[in-house]
Design a protein that fits this description.
The complex is a heterodimer of chains A (155) and B (733). By secondary structure, chain A is α+β, with helices and mostly antiparallel strands. Helices cover 35% and strands 16% of the residues of chain A. The chains are: A alpha+beta (155), B alpha+beta (733).
Chain lengths: 155, 733
C-alpha cells in the first residue's frame, strides 16, 4: 500500500491506496468516511459526487487520486458548513426546503456554491444553465433554483 | 394491575379500554426487547412507546422514500398525543420492530399508515387521560407538551406510562375518537422536514453510507444478455488485486473484496464467457409484439349500457385512436445498495426496500429459512419511485454474505441499475367513441394492453435467486396497473377492458403511478379529442359529463388559477416557428380518491420538433392536508418527473439486453427544461387525508399532448414525444 497526503476540509490527511487510478470519491467516502459526496454514476454524468478542488466544482467519481496534489484544497459538503453553522447555500436549501430524497443535493449545493462564488447575482436562466449537468430525479428543480436565488440575494 | 375505565369512557365516547400496567418492561432498548415487541396492527404497543424521559417512539411499517412522510407522520402523532414533534423518534421498516403496514406504495402512507398511527395515538392519549383522571382526582383535564393538568395538579405521560406498555387493543371496526380538526395546531401547518438539515450538510446516513463492522464489498457481474448462461470464468487478472474472491453460483457471478474500489476493479478484470441469448423482441416492432402477445385474461373495468349498439346507430360518428407509452425505468439517482450478514443462523438484511416485510418473505424463500430467521431493516436510499433494484441488491448481498461468511455490502453500478432494475412495462391503449350529430358522446370504449399480475402476490422475482437457481416465486408483478382504465365521465354507454398479457419483454414492476399514468394518458387525451370533435372548450366538455361536486369545484379552481380562456382547441392564432398552446387534464385517482387537475403551457418549435413546457398549473384536492409545504414538494416532484417521462424517456434495447445503460442512453429532464409549477391546494381539514405521492403524475402526459394539439393541431399519441415523433406527426397532418 502506498500513502499520500491530501488537504481535505482544511485538514491535512494521509490516505493509503493500492491503485493511483482510484477515484477521489472512494478516498473521501471509504478512507475518510465522508458522506457528502455520493456515488451516482461513476461517469461524471449526474453530479452527485461533486466536490470543490481549489474552489472549482469537480466530479470526484472521475477524478483519479493521482490527479490530486496535497497542495490542492479539497472541500466536501461537510467542509462547507454544518447543520449548526450552515454555509449560506446550505441555509438557503433548508429555508426553501429544496430537498426530496436529497441524494443529488450534495452536487446541487457544491455546484451552486462554486458558481455563486464567481457569479454573485445570476439570473434564473444562468442558474439553470449552471446546474444543467446536475441531475435530480425527484423533480426538486424549481425549489433548487429558488434556493440558489435566495442564497445569491443574501451574498 | 388492570384499570377498568368507565368514567372517561362516557366522556370521551369511545369503546372499552383497558390500561394494563402489569407487563412492566423497559422499551428503551428496543433490540433487547425485540422478541417481546408486539407487531400486530391491533395493538397500540405495535406503533407507540413512551419512555421514562417522555420520549415518544413511533414504529412505522411505512417508510420515507425521500418524500418527507416521516415528518408528516410525526406531525400526526404529535398532534394526536399533544407532544412536541421534537420529542418523537421514528423507527421505520424493521421487520423485527415495526408492524407490517404494507408496502410503501400506492400513495397510501398518510392515507392508511398515518391513520393507523392516528388511531394508536388517540387510543394512547385516551388511556393516559383516564389514568391521569384517577391520579389527579378530576376529569377536567388539559394536555400540553405531554403533561396532563387538572385540579391544580400535573402529571406527565412519562410518569404515567414511561417505559411500560399500553396493552391497548385497536379495533378498526370500533375506532377511537380522534381530536377534532378545528383543534389542530400541528397538522395542516407546514412543518420543516426533519431530515433536510442532515441531508444538506452530509451528516445524514443513507443506505449507501451505512457500514457494518468487518464488512466486505461485493460487485455483481451480470450476464451480457438476459437468459445467458455462464460458461466459463477466467480470474487470472484478479491475482494483482489483494484479497479479491470470486463467487459463482449458477449464472450468478460476483467478486468480493475488502474495499469498494477493489471490488469494482475485480469485477472489471474478471473475464467471463456467456452463452448467446436473444429473448427480447425487435424494439422497432415493439407494439406489434405487444398486440400479438397472448392475452391471459380480460379484466372488464367499466361496463355501462351497450356500446356496440350505440356505435352502430344511424348517424353516429365514430372516433378511434391508439396510444402507446414506452418502457420506462425508475431511474434512481443513487444505484441500489444493500448489506447482509449471516450470523447464528439468522440473516440480517439492510436495504432501502420499500417493502421490508415482503422482502423478508422473499429472502426466507431464497435461502430456505423460516421468515423469523430473517430480519430486514430499512435505511433510506435515493428516491426509488416504486419497486426498483433495492430488493435485488439485498438478495445479491445476502447470497455473497452467505458465500463468504462475512457481512457484505453490494453497491450496484450505474449500468447495473439501468440494465437490471425492473421496468415499467410497455402499455398500449386502443380508444373508440361515438358521437351523435349534436356532438354528444354516445359510447366510449377502451382496450388497455398490459401485463397480467400474478394473483398470489406482488413479489417481483429477485434477480440473484433466478440467476443462481435458488428458490423464488416466478411472479409477474407490474402492480395494480388496471387502475384508472375505467373512466370518470358519465357517458351513457361505456366498456373498458384490460387485456392482461401473459408476458412482457422485461421483468416488470410498479413505477410511480403504475398504470394510472398510462391509462389516464389515453383517457384524458382521448376525451380531449372528443372535445375538439364537438368543437367545445376542453374544460367545458369535461364538466358536461361530470356530476362529482368536488371534481367540478376543482376544475373551477383550476380554470381560475390558470386564467383559462374558454374556447375550443386548437388555437387559431398560430403563426411563426415557435407556437404556444395550453392543455388541460383531470383525474379522480382510482375513481375514489385524490382529485387533480392541471393545465400545461407549452411551446413547440415546428422546425426542430422540440417541446418545452415552461409552466404547469395544478389544482389538488387530497382531503385533509397534513403538511402543506411537503405536499407542494410532492406535487412539484410528480409534475417535473413526469414531464421528463413524457418528453424524454424510453428504455432502449436490442434482442439480448437493455442498451440504455447510462444517463446519455436514457436521458432525463435537465434544469433548463424544468417547468415552473403553480399550485392551488384545496384543503379539506374535515375530510379524510388521501394520498399525494402519485396522483398528480397521472395527468401530465395528457396535459402536454393536449397542449401540443392546442398549439399545432397535431395529436401526440406516443410517449415519449421526441422531436422526431413531433416532426413526423406534423408532416402527416
Amino acid at each position: 500500500m502506498a500513502k499520500k497526503s491530501l488537504t481535505v476540509n482544511g485538514k491535512r490527511v494521509s490516505v493509503s491506496y493500492d491503485d493511483p487510478q482510484m477515484p477521489l470519491l472512494y478516498v473521501l467516502r471509504d478512507n475518510l468516511d465522508l458522506h457528502g459526496p455520493r456515488f451516482g454514476c461513476g461517469l461524471g454524468q449526474c453530479g452527485a459526487c461533486t466536490v470543490h478542488i481549489d474552489g472549482a466544482a469537480v466530479r470526484s467519481c472521475v477524478t483519479p487520486l493521482s490527479a490530486v496534489s496535497s497542495k490542492q484544497k479539497v472541500v466536501t459538503l461537510e467542509g462547507l458548513g454544518t447543520a449548526q453553522k450552515p454555509h449560506p447555500v446550505q441555509k438557503a436549501f433548508i429555508d426553501e426546503q429544496a430537498v426530496q430524497c436529497g441524494y443529488c443535493i450534495n452536487g446541487m449545493i457544491m455546484q451552486s456554491a462554486a458558481f455563486l462564488a464567481k457569479n454573485k447575482k445570476p439570473s434564473e436562466a444562468e442558474i439553470k444553465a449552471a446546474l444543467a449537468n446536475n441531475l435530480c430525479r425527484c423533480g426538486t428543480h424549481a425549489r433548487i433554483v429558488r434556493a440558489v436565488k435566495r442564497a445569491s440575494a443574501q451574498a | 394491575m388492570n384499570i377498568q375505565i368507565s368514567r372517561r369512557q362516557a366522556l370521551l365516547g369511545s369503546g372499552a379500554l383497558v390500561v394494563s400496567f402489569s407487563l412492566v418492561r423497559p422499551l428503551g432498548d428496543a433490540l433487547a426487547q425485540s422478541q417481546a415487541k408486539p407487531l400486530a396492527l391491533t395493538e397500540v404497543d405495535s406503533f407507540l412507546a413512551i419512555d421514562k424521559a417522555g420520549k415518544v417512539t413511533v414504529y412505522s411499517g411505512k417508510v420515507d422514500l425521500g418524500t418527507g412522510v416521516t415528518t408528516a407522520l410525526r406531525q400526526i402523532v404529535a398532534e394526536e398525543l399533544d407532544v412536541p414533534m421534537a420529542r418523537i423518534e421514528l423507527i421505520q421498516g424493521d421487520t423485527l420492530l415495526t408492524p407490517d403496514q404494507g408496502n410503501t406504495w400506492g400513495s397510501l402512507t398518510i392515507q392508511l399508515g398515518g391513520m393507523q398511527l392516528r388511531q394508536a395515538s388517540a387510543a394512547a392519549r385516551q388511556a393516559l387521560l383516564a389514568e391521569a383522571a384517577k391520579k389527579l382526582g378530576t376529569d377536567q383535564l388539559t394536555v400540553a407538551d405531554g403533561v396532563i393538568s387538572g385540579g391544580g395538579k400535573k402529571v406527565s405521560y412519562a410518569e404515567l406510562i414511561g417505559g411500560k406498555s399500553f396493552s391497548i387493543k385497536l379495533d378498526p371496526k370500533q375506532p377511537v375518537k380522534e381530536k377534532a380538526p378545528k383543534d389542530y395546531k400541528i397538522v395542516g401547518k407546514s412543518q420543516p422536514r426533519v431530515d433536510i438539515p442532515g441531508k444538506v450538510t452530509g451528516s445524514f446516513v443513507y443506505m449507501q453510507d451505512f457500514k457494518v463492522p468487518g464488512m466486505l464489498h461485493g460487485r455483481v457481474v451480470r450476464p451480457p444478455a438476459i437468459g445467458a448462461k455462464l460458461e466459463s470464468v477466467d480470474d487470472a487478472a484478479l491475482k494483482k488485486i489483494p484479497g479479491v474472491k470470486v463467487v459463482r453460483e449458477g449464472n450468478f457471478l460476483a467478486v468480493v473484496a475488502s474495499s469498494e474500489w477493489d471490488a469494482i476493479r475485480g469485477a472489471n478484470a474478471l473475464k467471463a464467457t456467456w452463452s448467446k441469448s436473444e429473448t427480447l423482441p425487435d424494439q422497432a416492432k415493439l407494439w406489434e409484439h405487444v398486440r400479438a402477445t397472448k392475452v391471459a385474461k380480460e379484466d372488464v373495468t367499466g361496463n355501462t349500457g351497450n356500446t356496440a349498439e350505440a356505435m352502430a346507430k344511424d348517424g353516429a360518428k365514430t372516433i378511434k385512436a391508439t396510444y402507446d407509452f414506452a418502457i420506462h425505468m425508475h431511474g434512481s439517482i443513487g444505484p441500489s445498495c444493500a448489506i447482509a450478514e449471516f450470523k447464528d443462523g439468522m440473516l440480517t438484511s439492510w436495504s432501502a426496500s420499500q417493502a421490508t416485510h415482503n422482502l423478508r418473505k422473499q429472502l426466507a424463500q431464497m435461502f430456505s429459512l423460516p421468515p423469523e430467521k430473517v430480519r430486514c431493516i430499512y435505511f433510506e436510499g435515493a428516491g426509488c419511485y416504486g419497486r426498483n433494484g433495492h430488493e435485488d441488491a439485498a438478495a445479491d448481498a445476502a447470497l455473497l454474505a452467505k458465500a463468504v461468511g462475512k457481512p457484505v455490502r453490494v453497491q450496484w453500478s450505474r449500468a447495473d441499475e439501468h440494465g437490471w432494475e425492473p421496468k415499467g412495462p410497455p402499455t398500449l391503449m386502443d380508444m373508440r367513441a361515438s358521437m351523435d350529430a349534436q356532438g354528444n358522446v354516445t359510447a366510449w370504449e377502451g382496450d388497455f394492453f398490459m401485463p397480467q399480475q400474478t394473483p398470489a402476490g406482488f413479489l417481483v422475482p429477485l434477480v440473484a435467486a433466478s440467476l443462481a437457481g435458488m428458490p423464488y416465486a416466478d411472479h409477474i408483478a407490474p402492480g395494480n396497473v388496471f387502475q384508472n382504465s375505467a373512466i370518470q365521465y358519465k357517458f351513457p354507454n361505456i366498456k373498458t377492458v384490460c387485456k392482461r398479457l401473459e408476458t412482457t419483454p422485461f421483468r416488470p414492476s410498479w413505477i410511480r403511478t403504475p398504470g394510472r399514468m398510462q391509462n389516464t394518458y389515453a383517457n384524458e387525451c382521448f376525451v380531449d379529442e372528443l372535445a375538439a370533435a364537438a368543437n367545445m372548450d376542453p374544460i367545458e366538455f369535461r364538466r358536461k359529463y361530470l356530476d362529482d361536486k368536488r371534481g367540478l369545484e376543482l376544475l373551477d379552481r383550476l380554470a381560475a388559477l390558470a386564467k383559462w380562456e374558454k374556447r375550443p382547441s386548437p388555437q387559431k392564432a398560430a403563426s411563426g416557428n415557435v407556437v404556444k398552446g395550453r392543455g388541460v387534464s383531470y383525474v379522480k385517482y382510482e375513481l375514489v380518491r385524490t382529485y387533480v387537475g392541471v393545465v400545461a403551457e407549452v411551446e413547440v418549435d415546428r422546425t426542430t420538433g422540440v417541446i418545452l413546457v415552461p409552466k404547469f398549473y395544478v389544482a389538488h384536492d387530497c382531503g385533509q392536508i397534513v403538511n402543506p409545504d411537503g405536499l407542494k414538494n410532492q406535487i412539484d416532484g410528480n409534475v417535473i418527473q413526469t414531464v421528463s417521462r413524457t418528453l424524454y424517456e424510453e428504455v432502449k434495447f436490442d434482442r439480448s439486453r437493455v442498451t440504455s445503460l447510462d444517463w446519455e442512453g436514457y436521458p432525463i429532464l435537465k434544469f433548463p427544461q424544468a417547468p415552473d409549477v403553480v399550485i392551488d391546494l384545496i384543503d379539506r381539514p374535515n375530510e379524510k387525508p388521501w394520498g399525494a405521492g402519485e396522483p398528480a403524475a397521472a395527468v401530465i402526459p395528457s396535459a402536454i399532448s393536449n397542449a401540443v394539439f392546442d398549439a399545432t393541431g397535431v395529436r401526440l399519441r406516443s410517449v415519449p414525444y421526441t422531436p422526431a415523433k413531433v416532426k413526423a406527426a406534423m408532416q402527416s397532418t
